[in-house]
Amino acid sequence: MTATGASWGGTLRPVRAIGRSALSVVRLVGAVAIFAVRGVAAIFSPPWFPGQALRQLVAIGFFSLPVVGLTAVFTGAALALNIFSGGGRLNAEQVMPQIVALGITRELGPVLAALMLAGRVSAAIAAEIGAMRATEQIDAMRTLSTDPYRYLVAPRLLAAVMVLPLLTVVADIIGIAGGWLVAVRVLGFNPTVYIHNTAAFVQGWDVGSGLIKAAVFGFIVALMGCYHGYHASGGARGVGRATTHAVVSAAILIFASDYLLTTLFTHR
Amino acid sequence: MSAPAKLAWTGVCKRFDGAPVLDGFDLSVAAGRSLVIIGGSGQGKSVAIKVALGLLSPDAGAVSLDGRDVLGLGEQARRELFSRIGVLFQGSALFDSLTVWENVAFRLIHADRVPRRMAKARAVDALARVRLSATVADLRPSELSGGMQKRVGLARAIIGDPEVLFFDEPTTGLDPISAAAINALIVDQVRRLGCTAVSITHDLASARTIGDEIAMLQGGQIVWRGPAADLDRTDNAYVRQFVDGRPDGPITSAA
């Protein structure tokens, strides 16, 4: 190679690295999209496995109630304190119940419930399916004439999409209750007026938009767990890596889709 | 004239990260015969089986069952194909979340939609065929020893009376007595079903016991094939080195 060629090679190295990274991102997005389409198609075409879906409803929904409830109550309480002290600068402490309710129903309820599920459920799904991959259980399932997309992926996607809106309703109620508790016990608000103000201010769409977000987040949580678990490789280390990737990617996608959905909903 | 092939690999090539694992792999098994593929670790024995099962796509080549190509099958046709096949995986690959009988009857329950009570009766019968009592039926796989897990895996493979059985390292991880018991069960079941069997192993005692024929895989191709009795008589340099366990010879150890 000539000196000029070598110099060009050195100059182009970062460009090549950027190109490689861009291609790998495109490849990953394509692979996740194909996986998602196959998973969704499996929900709508037989054979179905209702027993598996029911089991996932309980595992994802019922057992996530305590963690979602605790997160919501403390967040509602902290939000009430922050809005009260911040509103005090504008002499607007009295709007605290309305802002707490709005913040919880539109944003914090669905996002926090989804993040809790990302940590608890995405990780569990990725670990379980990843271990099944590592021990050839998924291969065995295919040789037993059973499609893993139908038996493993579809029930988890369906359960998470159904359950996260329900958990969000619980988070909304408990979060607002947390705010109410602090407002009444610590800040001296009238309990009846607080509830009246909240109920009069919150509109159906405030709750509804949060529930739509929750359904999308539920899909993301289950999809990331299933995708990374299904493609785990390299034994126990690979399963650990899949679990981490599932949680991190689910959290990032939840925030990104939250922004996109909020933009969409505020411009409707 | 030789018997028509029940199962055949033709010119199969498979690369991983550019490195060839199977390189023009040709092999056929006649109906009712038991063929054992031997070879060192990383030589592509498991890959050959996974290609035949459609679990891995080859880069080139074909696999046929009863003369019919099995690689380009659709989902429904593949499901039907799998109903004629039984597989015992290396680590048994039992489903942790299910009981022993649910593992054995998995295909009956989920693919054939057999009522659970009937499926359980058939699973208990399959367990008896591998010398396991009905008392283990309601246990979880984690409550069984390695040898018992292999038997459960074997029961799952034979419950549908398959035409072709695949055994992936059937004795790996077992003590000599348990390994001998599994070998005896394999011979017994293959004979009883009259099926075609393809096994892969590097356990030569197992190969001699369960195989009518033995083929050696080296460098992505079959380098020797013959009756099991000829394994100790052949002067093929690859086989001699493998059987004698010598580090020097045409095979270079990857270890």
Unreliable sequence segments of chain B = none
Rg of chain A, Cα atoms, Å? 23 Å
| Helical fraction of chain A | over 70%
Can you identify the CATH superfamily of the largest domain in chain B? P-loop containing nucleotide triphosphate hydrolases
Provide mean pLDDT of chain A, rounded: 94
CATH topology of the largest domain in chain B: Rossmann fold
Secondary-structure element sequence of chain A? HHHHHHHHH
The N- and C-terminal alpha carbons of chain B lie at a distance of 42 Å
Query: How big is the Rg of chain B?
Result: 18 Å
Which spans of chain A have pLDDT < 50 for at least 5 consecutive residues? none
> Helix amount of chain B, in percent?
25-40%
Question: What does the largest sheet of chain B look like?
Answer: 6 strands, mixed
pLDDT averaged over residues of chain B: 93
Main β-sheet, spatial strand arrangement of chain B: 6-7-8-3-9-10
Oligomer category: heterodimer
Give the CATH level 1 class of the largest domain in chain B.
Alpha Beta
Tell me how many strands of chain B there are.
10
